Amino acid sequence: xxxxxxxxxxxAKFFHSGAAQFVLGVAQLEQLPAADRPExxxxxRSNVGKSSLFNALFGNSSLARVSNTPGRTQQLNFFxxxxxAAYIVDVPGYGYAQAPTAEVxxxxxxxxxxxxxxxxxxxAFLLIDARHGIKENDVEMxxxxxxxxxxxxxxxxKIDKISxxxxxxxxxxxQSKIKKHAACAPEILVTSSEKSIGLEDLRAAVLRLIEx
Length: 212
Ligand code: GDP
What we know:
212 residues; Rossmann fold; 39% helix; binds guanosine-5'-diphosphate
C-alpha cells in the first residue's frame, strides 16, 4: 500500500481522487463478496443526509446516486476503497414504510444476517440527523448492531441546520443514550456536508479502520 495521506489536505485530495468506486449491489446474502478485506458500513434513516455525506467525503456525486435511485431494489451497495484494499458499504436508508411488510421483513432479515455474519466488518457508522436526535427506529437499529456485536459509531449530520447551543444539547442527549449500547463507540462525529464540517475526522477514521 502506498504512503498514507495524513494531513487534512492530503486526506481530502486522496478521497476526492476516485478513492471509492461502486462494485456491486447485494440483495441476497449469496451475492456477498468474499470477506477478504476490511469493510465499514454507513447506515441511517432515509433523508438523514447519507448521500450528501458520501458526496462530500469523496467529491463524487455519482457515487451516492447509485444507492439512492428511487424504486431500486433494497440492496447493500459495495464500493471498492483504495484500489480494492477495503470495502465501503452503503446500507439503504430505513424508516420509510413504502415497501409491503413482507418485503420489509425480508430485507431486515438480509441486513441482520449480513451484520451478524460479516467477520471483516470493522465498524458501522450510524448517521443521526442533528435536528431530530435518536429516534425509535434508530434505537431498533442500535439494538440490531448490539445483538450482532458490530462495533458502531454515531455521526451527527446537518449540524449547520441548528444553533451551536442546540448541537451541544443534542450531543449530550445522544451521549447519554449511547451509554446503554455496549457496541457503540463513545466518540461522536459531528458533521455538515453543506459546510464541510467534520469531514477530516471522518476521513481519518475510515482510513484508520482499514489500516488496523
Ligand atoms: P439520504 O436520504 O440519507 O441520502 O439524504 P440526502 O443526502 O439525500 O439528504 C436529504 C436532504 O437533506 C437533502 O435535501 C439534502 O440537501 C439535505 N442535507 C443533507 N446533508 C445536509 C447538510 O449537511 N446540511 C444541510 N443544510 N442540508 C443537508
